[in-house]
## 1
Amino acid sequence: MNPAQITIVVLDRNASDLASLAQILEDIGYRVLSASTTAHVERFVQTEAVNLVVKGFEAGQVDVIAFMRQIKTLSRDTEFILCGRGGTIETAVEAIHQGASEYLPKPVNAAALTQAVQQALDRQSLVAEDPKLRQSLKRRTSPDVFAGSSPRMRQITETLAEVATTDVPVLVTGESGTGKELAARAIHARSRRQSGPFIAINCAGLADSLIESELFGHVRGAFTGAVQDRPGAFQIAAGGTLFLDEIGDLSPKGQGDLLRVLEDGVFRPLGSPHAVTANVRIVAATNRDLARRANEGHFREDLLYRLNIVEIDLPPLRKRAEDIPALVASFNAHFCARHSRRQKHFTPEFLAQLARHPWPGNIRQLRNLIERIVVTTHATEIGPELAPPIPTNSANATTAAGASRAEAAPMFAVHFGMTAAEVEALLIRHTLEKLDGHRAEAARVLGLSRRTLHYRLSSAATPQ
């Protein structure tokens, strides 16, 4: 989550304890409001969207149960963490029974408080009665991959907002790692279906023998082993959004089955005589050129027309380098809060080096880099020595400008006596290493389908 978007009120009559609690939370990046009386807290919740109240108390102080109830009348979704010492255990237990998220003994351990806050916010995102608050909290649990002000991203953000309120199918395109599923989730979160489920299906992993059952479900006795009714993705996603990832790798049979549902608006679970109305919004995604695949006969042209009512093409990170500082700030805030680390400061030299990197893994690769730095680096100031090296050879330089697959391939040594299977396994392994283990992008670079890559990974000999 982005802690700067979370407002926490800290209440403690003990000035030293108040300062200590506030400092712990401010170091993480939360927006902290300090209060020394219950009246101050009431004023805050009447004028602010307060996510959490951290209340310190001691024996003989104000009735915390009555205090919690009063705040709940003003802000029903606010969570509470209690911090106490001396004769307060019974009160704390009762407070937790009455809805407090956690009780921590004083002096409060920073790690324990950080974890308790995270748990309270997770709980709030699940049980909040206000739908707008619940959705905003869910969005905060992931960093913003659309951060930045480049013209391309501003246009994409506007398009997302425009299409989200409709039910038209959307096709999200772009290289692997550019955030296609996050774009689909953003459409769902802003749609009229936001309270319904978001179900993601990897089309590359659907075998022909399982497609009908996976998408449309089956009834008991439909085939050997069907011992009970089982709903498919279209039924599970009813009232919500069905995200069809890697749609370009869907088999011809699957393309035909999907087209029939999109045209008729109904489907039949396998083995059932009864038609079911399809009540889902379709968002599909691919890193392939579907128009070219349709011209080559690998993808149904009529299905492409059905899916591509609106296309959102996400640019690779190398073409939106001006957004990198905003993305780094988003990832930094998210992972520091998630892993209970102090905020990092990334120097201009570090950011400048990032802007010159080709980013074959796109935003996913940048996100992994920032998380690794947050978790493994003790220093708070991050310089260029921790940035990926700037490409120096012609192959990498060409990659930065949109290299061909052959030029972008990693270098490795082939020795006399190696079998063809060993060379193939070595090539696959080095390609996966260069792309941070992302198989879909590796399959694209190698010119293979994802299914073929998976088969060769499991069957190829391992070079010694």
## 2
Amino acid sequence: MPDRCLAEWLTLLEARHPSEIDLGLDRVSAVWSELVARRQQQNNPLKLGTVITVAGTNGKGSTIASMQAILLQQGYRVGATTSPHFIDYNERISVQGEPVSDALIVSAFEEIELARQAISPEPVSLTYFEFGTLAALLVFADANLDAVLLEVGLGGRLDAINIIDADVAVVTSIALDHQAWLGDTRELIAVEKLGIARPGRPLLIGEADSPKGFDQMITATGAEALQIGGDFSIELQDDQFAATLLSADGQPRLFEHLPVAGLLPINKTLAIQALLCAGFDLTDSGVAAALAELCLPGRQQQLDFKGIKVIVDVAHNPAAAIALAHSLTPIKGRYIAVASVLSDKDWSGIVEPLGNIINHWQIAEISDTERATKGQTLLEVLYNAGHSATLHEQVDGGLEKAFLTALDQATADDTLVVFGSFYTVSTVLMLKQELKRKFEKYN
């Protein structure tokens, strides 16, 4: 097998499998079983520690970030996998809160490749995401971790993450998204999300507005379910909130003076409750301290570009757009949007809650994937809804040109809001990184 650097591996994986998304566990399970068997033969068994899996339409990354911050503050060793990444692939696999090295990922890829080829004369085909999921699990198994936090990439039941029987499962929210793969009703999507649950093990539900028949769906999993508003709850208190939770032995546990700012209180609450269910020993002061300092890239993250305030948020479905709209309080100047979405997203539903807040839209078609919504489609939706918008063609720089134009036209009283996709947000975060490098070079 030729030596490849990480960039070469990623290029290979992107081109190798015919579908970017190919739900199903048969292929990835077969390779994982081979990896487990090979490690057993080497007397080096794969051990992951306590595993918490997080699914949901929105809030997955925030819940995992909250759990990671709390565990690190309390002195536990923790690994986490999230997706997609903003700038570097390594962001997807972290140990002790830091992205792992290229060398660790390449070593894992090489081990997976050997297992993939050993199963049959025709090597098992894996998607880019499936390869990355297996790599994360191998890295975690070698890192002597107390906790492993796994973010489900798409759905739950048929997602590659679901090859692992989690000790605790979390479903953050259930809304319409990825309908082409998960179904076009909240009921169908709920079934997919609940697929991460395991009989007799804790299942946390953060969705307060349950779809029809949800209780019966939960019962069918056989899991020990805890639901927001019933088994655990939140009380908002201006800029703080309190969470009434349950410890692993079923006794009530009250956490007070938790920060409202930053990530949503529901996701912070789910994080604490999940860790309690998993049996981790948490101090009240430690939890509050961890959450007080917590921020997550791309989640209502505030940046400054040459004196202009910029908010970046990966909101890419109507439910997330509503949450973003609620966070945009009245300002002296204008809100200028820089936005784009993938073709499986409800662009009209995303625009609707923000329509009365955004004064002008700078839009462009995403260039890094074939799944992008056409620029003309983006423009037509805005035009038909009566909104002011400018479309930037890919030949003119696309999303980068859209952002730089918005920045050039903004005053100190204005705020730019960048959203719609990880691709959209990553464009701005990379520009910020480039500006930082230039500043450091000449100062």
## 3
Amino acid sequence: MYLTKEQENMLNGGHGEVVERQMRLLVRLGEIYKADKMIDVGSVQVAGVSYKSIGDPGLEFLEDIAHKGAKVKVLTFLNPAGMDMENWREIGFPESFATMQKKVMDAFEQMGIVMSATCTPYLAGNLPRFREHIAWSESSAVSFSNSVIGARTNREGGPSALAAAICGFTPNYGLHLDENRKPHMLVKVDAKLEYNSDFGALGYHVGKIAGSKIPYFTGIKNANTDNLKALGAAMAASGAVALYHAEGLTPEASTMETKGLEIIEVGEKELKEAYAKLNTGKDPDLVVVGCPHASLREIITIAKKIDGKHLKKPFWICTSRVMKDAATRMGLTATIEKAGGKIVADTCMVVSPIEEMGFKTTGVDSGKAGNYLPGFCKQSVVFKNIDDLIKSG
């Protein structure tokens, strides 16, 4: 792999111990995947932010490199933390957990990272351009940036993303290359897709078939960016899909050849089966939407639906701090709270310790959350569309 003189200097310790360690990680990654060189990245998104996910070993690593002067060179955003960083006590997050989560965030802040704590950085001030090389790590953000925006990133791990942020570049392999962005299967959709949950069910079904392959969808009509966000997130969770194309909807679809591809047909039957598989519970004691984090459009829609109602169960809308602040200025937060709901910023149901907070069954409209909650949070899942969730909540 070709390295510039400056990169060789970084590798040989010329920029200090921390940079040398991060550079060695990137070089090793490049060697494994036979990258020809390093490429500059326009932005980074780092995962491994929740104390629930990284624990004491992760915290010790972050504090160590922060203490040794680690600084990021490019715009770097954080994935969700394990709690709402401002209103954690009011919502009911454990104080012992909060103490450790704050230490994690302090270490990231020392490195010059934006305290975004969101899985939708493209809605919160980090929007890549078409074909821009980036190094993002959260699976749904990777899918959205590759597929809907047309930027280019591999599905980075937390350490490799942080290394890219500190060094300013990433190895040139995988989805950074034109030849690796071509579809492997043609997915013909003949089903009514009305709710985000429908797109989540579709993604859950296709992801299990696709694995890490790239699907090309036909038959999806009038999908907005929230629908596509839900679709990609579910495929990344049930499989490992980091890029998909959708005819007439995603920017690279028109440039792709689909003749001779394996064909997968998805109709109402397959969607119903996906709904059934995702449902492992009956009566939720917590309802959470916003996985991936809710957009302002989604918050507006929910506020209209629950305006004047009284929710019977705890009801969370997870989103970024940026979106919550906008919702508050618009009066949406007040409307939601009056109905008994909460806008919860900085975190989500998957990376927060909801099992320690007394919740056992969670209602969601997210295929991603429905896939992860049983294993990550020991939850039974009620998977429904937003209208049915509001009725049950």
## 4
Amino acid sequence: MLGELSDRDRAILTLEAAWPRHGGMKEETIRAQLGMSPARYYQLLGRLIETEAALDFDPLLVRRLRRLRDARAGQRTARMRGFVG
């Protein structure tokens, strides 16, 4: 449910959802708005999209991010198989 998300969690999801509408460097925006490094942001975002609370908060965003993550994982696996072959 929505109550399970912290203010920081909601801010991360809101920034990620709004990003295509913003110009400039995403890393600078992460630091300025959230006060964290981009590495930490992506670490938290990766964990966050696995939660039901995040899915309840913004289902379209979370499903899109999960699809992107899964596609990247599939590409990495395919590359690794090509090298091992």
